[in-house]
Amino acid sequence: MGIFSKFLSKIKVSDLLHKPDLDEAENELIATDLGADLARRIIEETRKVKSQTPEEALQSVLSSHLSKKPRQLLIQPGLTTVMVVGVNGTGKTTTVAKLAQKFSPQGLVVLAAADTFRAAAVEQLQTWGKRIGLEVISGKENSDPASVAFDAIEKSRNLSASFLFIDTAGRLHNKSDLMNELGKIKRVIEKVSPVSEVLLVIDATTGQNGLQQAKIFAEAVNVTGIVLTKLDGSSRGGIALAIEDGLDIPIKFVGKGESIDDLTEFDPIAYIKGLIS
Predict the structure, then answer these.
(1) Average pLDDT over residues 58-71
(2) Which domains does the chain have, with CATH numbers?
(3) Is 91 annotated as a binding residue?
(4) For the chain, which terminal residue's Cβ has fewer other Cβ atoms within 10 angstroms, N or C?
């Protein structure tokens, strides 16, 4: 990341009150994943901050645009049910497996392959399940995803499982059908068990398109947290700040690779420092 380091090197401490280089910095920021509006607001707010160093001023402003909502996974007594949503290609199914691996030490985990219209997704989750020794509930190809989710709830209860992670479809070629399907899955689950979290998987390399995806899913289901994938050298990282500022949805987990253990809690302090340095 380090998208701000280029122009920070231009600003002298003695010029901080006037920040003459920030006009140029705004143009640089607009070219990143922050988006024009947020970049402009960050520059204007940074102008008003009294601080000894440019880094301190910018760090203060950037931190103020992050969500203040809790970042820990909401764990319920009994069964914690988590729907994982997102468009195809973001690493959604792999993220489900990573979540399962991460929370397995805290109790029995069951996986549900509710992306029934994509046989590859079901097979992929079943493969992950075998690797980490977890049961995967699935249905026939093109079966009702809500019925798979319901069966998974029943199976999880019978096994006295602690966690159920549900992989859902990610087709956006017909947005209304996908969102109606997600809404139906959630309603069916909540007839018998509360949905603890709806986690949206966003590919950090998609830039501002990731923010648009977040808006679409947030309108359809109550997205409670973001899992940001591919937040590494190929990503400028600004999309995380744009999502939290625009939608007040906290990023809860970050994936930086393909390994099953490659999922960590999002650290806002480290993230801001990474943007600056």
Answers:
(1) 92
(2) 5-64 (no CATH), 80-276 (3.40.50.300)
(3) yes
(4) C
